[in-house]
Amino acid sequence: MKTHRLALALALCTLGFSCTDKYTEELTVNAPVYLTYEALRTAVGPEPARTLERPGKIYFKDNRIFIVEYLQGIHVIDVSDVSNPQNLVFIHIPGCVDLAIKDQSLYADSYTDLVTIDVSEVARPKEIHRLTDVLPYKIPTPKETAYPRAEVLKDKGVVTGWELRREKHAVTPPKDLYSEYDYSDKAWPSFFLANAEGTTAGSGSGSVGLGGSMARFGLYQDYLYVADESRLYLFDAATPARPVALGIHPLANAIETMFIYDHHLFFGTPSGMLVYSLQVPLAPDYIGDFRHTTSCDPVVVQDGYAYITLRAGETCGGGVNRLDIVKISEDYKEYDLVSSYGMTAPQGLGVDGNKLFICDGPAGLKIYDAEDKTTLSSHLIATFPEIQAYDVIPLEGYLFLVAEEGFYLYDYSDYTNIRRLGYIPISPSNKE
């Protein structure tokens, strides 16, 4: 019936009736569900440890693993006893997707805000600073895509979801029910816009942690970088407890992940890898790119080589699943493809010396000896096919891994005997 009415309205337009006049029609629409700004900005705080349900980004600092519970907050896991990881506390942070830590200050996104949380007393984390409206206003994609979206009113709060309602709407044919906001959906596991974790340490003052390859948060010297799809948000973190918003640096479109290494920013995009120099930290300078076929692609870099996984899918486009190994020149301006290897559905990856760790979707975790980049497929050290791995952090013989099944900890110090040491499962209700 809705289609017929819109067709009638268009027909009337062709007969000379005004097409700027609105008419009222009752429709089934995706109506936004709001969280008020007041509720958003009073919600951060500690809660008892809870089971993992939708684990996402992963971060290591001071013998603790921080795991994002998608849009809910952060689990804090004590891994000081690697054979017995302990779920210590949950930090409730509505809208959280990413984090990074400098000294004892944890930075996390909370929808439009950047919050700073003191984690010096890990059992009692507390919010100590908040920068409001410094991050983009994001809108989730409705599950019921067959119905139009009602208008989003930003002054009512942030949108946390949608519900189907019958509502009367003033309509100007043939649209008016569709918002002009960005509804693209790139977060793992495909629930909301904005994805990625804070990666590698910088060389500035203060101690920083280490994140996974799916990062969009990163620390370098005294600065915090937060990557959006087409913008880089810069913050001064010289005083860790009170970061200061400095401005926004434009980037190419469709940024997916960010990795910081050797005074450079490496961005993964659907079309390849972008490289920016951090010689002037407040003015990242584009110096080159490596392009490939369309796919989702996190990237990690070590000792003159970039390792890039390409994943096909509905949100990624393309039909290629593979690993590309790229040789980078000393000035980081030239890029030569060394080799490519077919994969199943790769996501995050990590490298430590000659060991390369790849989260290959339903094929599980794969560990390679990457000393010879041209014969990688012949040097598969170990595989763990029973898990659907998402991202990893390899560090000094220990591998921290987050997967759809939960959190895993492996000892890879002896590559002839890589073994699982610890495991924290997801909630049983989330298992099929």
Question: Could you list some keywords that capture this structure?
Answer:
432 residues, mainly beta, Methylamine Dehydrogenase, Chain H, six-stranded antiparallel β-sheet, four-stranded antiparallel β-sheet, 32 strands, 4% helix, globular
Q: How does this structure look, described?
A:
- With 432 residues, the chain is mainly beta.
- The chain has a single domain, classed as YVTN repeat-like/Quinoprotein amine dehydrogenase (Methylamine Dehydrogenase, Chain H).
- The N terminus is likely disordered.
- What does the overall shape look like? globular
Structural class by secondary-structure content: mainly beta
Strand arrangement, major sheet: 2-6-5-4-3-12
Total strand count, please? 32
* The CATH homologous superfamily: YVTN repeat-like/Quinoprotein amine dehydrogenase
Query: How many structural domains are formed by the residues?
Result: 1
Beta content comes to: over 45%
**Major sheet characteristics:** 6 strands, antiparallel
Instruction: Look up the CATH topology.
Output: Methylamine Dehydrogenase, Chain H
CATH structural architecture: 7 Propeller
Q: Report the radius of gyration as a whole number of Å.
A: 23 Å
Helix % is under 10%
Unreliable stretches (pLDDT < 50, length at least 5) are 1-20, 172-204
| Helix segment tally | 2
The end-to-end span amounts to: 38 Å
Instruction: State the CATH class.
Output: Mainly Beta
> Mean pLDDT, nearest integer?
85
